[in-house]
Amino acid sequence: MGKAFSIIGTILGVVILFFGLGFLVEGSDFFLYKFWAPKQENVRRQVFENTQSYVQGKVEYLIRLRYQYQSLPEGSQKSSIRMLILDEASTVDQGKLPIDLQSFIQSLKEGE
User: Both 17 and 41 in a single domain?
Assistant: First the structure.
């Protein structure tokens, strides 16, 4: 009888050990993912922000905002559009913008 309990206890101990090892392996994967996922996502975002489609979309949007800005009379709407243009321009590499748009954004920055 004592030998049967010893065998059952050993089997139960081995099963618990396997579950514990499995938990450690899966837990370490989770912690590795938790560490590396933000870094990988930052790289993915930087690559995306340098794609031609992203830059072209930003250029088109900034050109529309420039048109709105130039067609508005002086007032609170114009200053709001100005702040929006400066905010959007800060999210794209200035060197990738057309020269006329760069000079327009520079003139808005100097008008602060």
Answer: yes
